[in-house]
Amino acid sequence: xxxxxxxxxxxxxxxAACLQPTLAxxxxxxxEVRFSTGLAISNAPLTASWGLGxxxxxxxDLSPLRFQLVLDPGVSFSRSVTPxxxxxxxYALYREGELDVSAGxxxxxxxxxxLALPYSLEPVSPLGNRQGRWGGRVSWNxxxxxxxxxxxxxxxxxxxxxxxRREFGEFELEAHALYxxxxxxxxxxxxxxxGLVVYGEGWLLLNPSEARYALGLSGSLGEGWWTLEGGYAxxxxxxxxxxxxxxxxxxxxxxxxxxxxxxxxxxxxxxxxQLSSGYIxxxxxxxxxxxxxxxxxxxxAVLNCVLxxxxxx
Length: 313
Description:
By secondary structure, the chain is mainly β.
């Protein structure tokens, strides 16, 4: 019964919606279904995989209350079967003027980095999706400022987290202080300088001391846009932090398609290189995504091809 709280919360959310038939027009939903297939090529035998999944986003407004539900269920078939119930968010939000109060399972993204993840409180599902944490939050939002206090459950303990965000014209900064298993402080921000977007964040984990950070630039190039980033962070969920340099270029092909090209250099021993090329074709009712990834080290090379099909019923 370890997952009993989310079953109870989901039941309460559905009951609240069913008890308000006269306000059905305030229920907004978005559904997508996914199919993926992949092939990995390395020194070992070929490894094929495929997966099925879905995503349901539902928002029910009973002003000044809002109920939010996000489900990402799925299953992956490879050498073993990996199922994922996919409960990502389930919370109630009360909004009155400059005050927001929420309780339940809610995501808490803290990063401003685009190509890496210096620090995160969010757990990762068996299929690699970032999920929310149970808890409560209070936010005060006067003009150009947000002060947020959260108390979250993580690893069987309550974690306090305090954030202060302030906008300064074309720049904004946000400071964080939290105490999961040890004290953690962070500062992140972004802004525009001479037509370029400059962003960065730094984190200090204490007892023992450890620093993580990421700095980046982003701008336009013709009809596309590019991003350069570097620092000490994790570049994929569940990977340890490492020094890295990364770049990405996105090139639109009309209004329906685009190319994404990215490169990662993990500056550790052994040196690792990741090259990715992706093509996305988008229509109102479906999206096709084909990606080719290549990882290289001194001793090994891995090639991975993935095809995604997402439909929006």
